[in-house]
């Protein structure tokens, strides 16, 4: 973050009740950083606290696990200054496994020439509400947003244990174009603690999209709409993913319920029938 070449960079670090000494490290080593400490309240509350403490007009986010690549903020500000009709920008990204050494500067510089070829997720640019209904294409650690957006649509929903970012970007997509830079400007760090997260009791992806559909339907505020069949397919897939997670931890009843929900939404979903067969096999195996 400190390596960014954008002038007048204000850094606000929110310590969400950590006990690993990171707050002391920031306080002792980085006098230019504003340190905000709070009791553990979760990522949504921490980000909201950072937004309200920041003084600048533009807000960017960086989770503790992840890395910005050089030039990120400048590339985004250059684009947004050239496009005053947009108030938010995100970029492509690449994945880095923390067991590996940090990629060499030459590799990081080469990423910028790939035009997003290494990006694991395709993206969309403009009035992207219809695309967001199908998938959360915006990764929070790549976002740069004008603070007026939060005044209009609100902040991260701290009542959502997961999907709070997806929920906010859906709301933001109703009031502004969201631009995408195809070159990767951040690294998503993979490590055991974020690979083996506990399986949630609720399908928050379905919840977030369902709330958006109930409020705004399938259409963008500036033309264009998602097809109901495509949204249904995406929602059904979210339920098979949810079922697979519960199947993996032995929650057979929850997996069965989720699979039936997927097939109720999209009876033609092949993954749904495959998951149902796995559920049946697990159920029969439990009677042996």
From TrEMBL:
Domain Glycosyltransferase 2-like stretches: 2-85
SUPFAM superfamilies: Nucleotide-diphospho-sugar transferases
One GO molecular-function entry: hexosyltransferase activity
Keyword flag Secreted: no
Pfam families: Glycos_transf_2
Keywords attached to this entry: Transferase
Protein name: Putative glycosyl transferase
Organism: Candidatus Accumulibacter phosphatis
Source species taxonomy: Bacteria, Pseudomonadati, Pseudomonadota, Betaproteobacteria, Candidatus Accumulibacter
């Amino acid at each position: 973050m400190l390596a960014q070449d954008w002038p007048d960079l204000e850094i606000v670090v929110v310590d969400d009740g950590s006990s690993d000494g990171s707050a002391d490290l920031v306080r002792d080593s980085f006098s230019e950083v504003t340190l905000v400490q709070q009791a553990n309240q979760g990522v949504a509350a921490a980000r909201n606290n950072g937004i309200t403490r920041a003084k600048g007009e533009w807000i960017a986010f960086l989770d503790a696990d992840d890395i910005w690549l050089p030039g990120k903020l400048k590339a985004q500000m250059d684009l947004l200054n050239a496009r005053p009709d947009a108030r938010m920008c995100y970029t492509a990204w690449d994945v880095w496994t923390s067991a590996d050494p940090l990629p060499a500067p030459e590799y990081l510089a080469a990423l910028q020439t790939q035009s997003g070829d290494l990006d694991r997720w395709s993206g969309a640019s403009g009035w992207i509400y219809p695309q967001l209904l199908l998938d959360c294409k915006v990764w929070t650690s790549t976002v740069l947003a004008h603070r007026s957006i939060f005044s209009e649509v609100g902040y991260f929903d701290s009542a959502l244990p997961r999907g709070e970012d997806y929920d906010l970007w859906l709301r933001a997509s109703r009031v502004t174009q969201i631009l995408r830079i195809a070159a990767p400007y951040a690294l998503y760090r993979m490590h055991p603690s974020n690979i083996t997260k506990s399986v949630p009791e609720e399908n928050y992806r379905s919840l977030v999209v369902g709330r958006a559909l109930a409020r705004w339907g399938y259409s963008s505020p500036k033309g264009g709409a998602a097809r109901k069949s495509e949204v249904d397919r995406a929602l059904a897939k979210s339920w098979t993913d949810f079922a697979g997670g519960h199947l993996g931890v032995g929650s057979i009843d929850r997996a069965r319920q989720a699979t039936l929900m997927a097939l109720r939404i999209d009876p033609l979903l092949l993954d749904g029938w495959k998951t149902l067969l796995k559920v049946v096999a697990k159920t029969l195996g439990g009677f042996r």
